[in-house]
Structure prediction request, 851 residues.
Amino acid sequence: MSDPATPRPIPAPPDFPVTWERPEQERLFWTHDRMHWPDPLPIVYASLVPEDGVNRAAERYQAPIRFDAARINGYQYSSFHPPLVPPEELEAMGHRAQEKVGQAMARLGEIWETEWFPEIKQHLDYWRSYDLRGATMPQLLDHLDQTLKRHQRLWTIHFEVAFPMLMSVSLFDDFYRDTLGGEGAFDAYKLLQGFTTKTVESGEELWKLSRKALGIPSVRQVLETRAAQEVIPALEASAEGRAFLADLRAYLDVYGRRGDKFDMMGQPSWIEDPTPVIKNLKDFIGQPDRDLEAERAALVAEREQAIATAREKLKGYPRQVVEQFEFLLRAAQTGIVLSEDHGYWIDYCGQYEVRMVLLEFGRRFAAAGLLDRAEDVVHLTFEEIAETAASLPRIDRRGLVAERKAEIERFRQVQPPPALGTPPPGPPPDDALSRAMGKFFGAPPAPVTDRSLLKGAAGSPGKVRGTARVVRSLAEAARLLKGDVLVAETTAPPWTPLFATAAAVVTDTGGILSHCAVVAREYGIPAVVGVGAATAVIKDGQTVEVDGDAGLVRVL
Amino acid sequence: MRECALAVTTDLLWLDHPDCRELALVGGKAANLARLASLHPVPPGFCLTTAAFDRAWNGGPPRALPSDVRATLSDAYARLEAENGADDLAVAVRSSAVDEDGVGASFAGQHETYLNVVGTEAVAEAVERCWASASAERALAYRRQQGLPVDRVQLAVLVQRLIHADVAAVVFGANPLTGDRDEVVVNASWGLGESIVGGTVTPDTYVVAKADGRVLSRRVGDKARMTVPVAGGTREVEVPRMLRGTPSLDDAQAAEAAALAVKLEAAMGWPVDVECAWRDGQLYLLQCRPITTLR
Prediction:
């Protein structure tokens, strides 16, 4: 009999062989980050390692947390664990981190404005002003080095923002629930709603574009009658169409550096393939008018009312507690905006530039016959890219790329296990950071015992019925009609214009602080997140009832 | 002496009235506070006397306020509101029994206390409940155990402005662990004192030297819960996570509380057990009784 106190590694499923690069990795506990990376990723991520930014940011805050990432059969696995130090030192680190993150929370908006955002802009400006086509190969190789360094800086900033941003919203949520005695799961979030974020803005601007299209009969006719892929050629055919196309391109120039989910290397951005945007436009012109300003004003009025009510309740509370409320409210209102805006600037605008650099290599390799397509460059590591470029045109990469693509396709058909490695002994920690991460990533989903009643987490309030549309990529979302329930493994910020079409959203991943939940609340549609098996159990076309308050989905 | 000194109409006495120091008339809690009010700020208020209770006694504790007592109470509450410049003034309503808070028995928690009572109706109801509590089983059992009469309880009711405490403390004018009378132990935590008194929170603990007010030791408690005023009373809620490990007092405040205990000990001639609270930097004396358990 085995000692129950000795944790044993989780056996890997037969169709998912696991070979650890380092033996000690097996002693860590790994979970598949399905919310960000549901699909297998191309190997170029092994060179980019954006997740290393977690550890650099943790050092800035002296947070007692370390992060390891592993791509196993192409899938992204994460391991968060405490650093290997004595328990007293760990506790001391916890206190220092609370202080340091607290200091950052106190100046969250200011640090963003004066430190993080200017540096992000500086990197973006560097990339945008670089003449990729005109560069010589040696120059381009230098540029690749620069790109890697700047990409690392962006991901350090990403997690420097993420720690205080997530903590502020989570602590505010805790405060509201525990100290103010809020009843509903969403009460706290009413005090944080109605702020403009890049994500909401991208939906609103597209909506405005749809109203403009409605006013131009020829453009309207094209959008109403043509399939999404045929819209651009049809618009090119008329002067009115070309004028509208200029507006669309202006929109894409601001909001189009985004693709399907979070994988910006392997997937085309909207600038490269605007089909998803055109699909959204087609939806929007079929919908009745909305008064965006009045909608926002209503959200703001509700927010201010909720804040006034909370302040009234707090009147007799200790002054220090009232100060804590005001501190957390201010930090969380900034945090909730940054939770979308950091993603816009770093995950999307930043990674788009990296993709552009890689594609330039890809184009040159393809022209030399070393790749079939420029896009295939993401199936090479940075070292392989540099080696190929330095010895152009000698190293034919087509065979290697074909092998790697085949492997990705093979594992795309396999369900990756949710966890690997060795589960940690004892219950999960209940410190503020662990709680915040739990609200972002969501709790492990409940096992499905009743296939007609799926349990997830409350993401956004309300209850509706609709036809389920199980959507695996933005390209598939064309089937989503007004009033349908969007069912997906995860929804990334580029998906959120769909929230104006969907009646509700159900995801397999995420918690109350996930992008999906945050944005669903802004759109005022019910959301159940972190269901785990929604895309596996719910069949496309079934009628479902989504109860966003209870976190339940009924299959009717 | 009591019968002849007191007119039957003395149903209500303000804390600053000299007669309010009369134990037989206002009970131990109120008499102690009235006596000590010249030494340290106490929340303003008044006491519905044992005379009112006596007149209403009818072979058992009176359940309802006679109409004249009710009118007197209502006028006094209105005056307290006016003096504190507040409509709907929140008050604390506590029973104050004649033989409690004496050297013999502390009675801590044996009679009722209602916090955050707002409005004439609610105040009258709270007073009625205090009266009814005089016969409540746990109070009687305690009295039997202490050898006090159970047939005729003499009860007054103290009504004071509620101090919305930032921090409350229980100050013990001796070290209860060592019996050392040269030390004062201050237990402090966020919010109203009920969570400390009720033992639902692990407070911060400061040991202070009586001689010079030096803080000899401090231990930060985890302070997970606190009692706060909510509509219709109080509620125990969780302390915000970032405040739990934050000390509720600085050394100067711990010394201030200890100095209060020393001053009250000198006045009462006995080491004392004090409940007090800070609001906006001002320390209020809420209760003071002689320590009855010292070896």
